[in-house]
Specification:
By secondary structure, the chain is α+β, with helices and mostly antiparallel strands. The protein is built from two helices and six strands, in the order βββαβαββ. It has helices at about 45-65, 85-95; strands at about 5, 20-25, 25-30, 70-80, 105-110, 120-125. The chain has a six-stranded mixed sheet with strand order 1-2-3-6-4-5, covered by helices on one side. Helix 1 runs parallel beside helix 2 (about 85-95). It is globular, with a radius of gyration of 14 Å. About 30% of the residues are buried.
């Protein structure tokens, strides 16, 4: 199976040589999503507000691929301050129930694009 590029106008457009998502071998790999609105504006506020927008972007890209959050098998969360973990995790828990949650890694990084406080990338199974 050749790789398929996933692109939707319902999420921020790539600003470099990458795709919003790629389908290959039974999986859909999403690029990390930051809290940009589809028209390219950064969401103001704290990490909770930014995480809500990140999930809106993730859901939009997954929908374009014919998938939902239920298909997600792995997430990686990047935070500029692990002190924001509880606030991010509260929003995360609204989207993934503990008993069927995907595997997750969370790391603190020194900076994220455009001053974002959070970035989340996901891998989803379409099998």
């Amino acid at each position: 199976m050749s790789k398929q590029i996933i692109l939707t106008q319902s999420a921020p457009q790539p600003v470099g040589p990458y795709s919003q998502a790629v389908r290959q071998g039974g999986f859909v790999y999403l690029a990390g999503q930051i809290p940009l609105t589809p028209d390219g504006n950064m969401v103001e506020g704290g990490v909770a507000d930014q995480t809500r927008q990140v999930f809106a972007n993730i859901k939009a890209v997954l929908a374009e691929a014919g998938l939902t959050l239920d298909h997600v098998v792995k997430t990686t969360v990047f935070l500029t301050d692990l002190g924001d973990f509880a606030a991010m995790n509260a929003i995360y828990a609204e989207h993934f129930k503990a008993e069927i949650a995907p595997a997750r890694s969370t790391v603190e990084v020194s900076k994220l694009p455009l001053g974002s406080l959070v970035e989340i990338e996901v891998i989803a199974s379409d099998g």
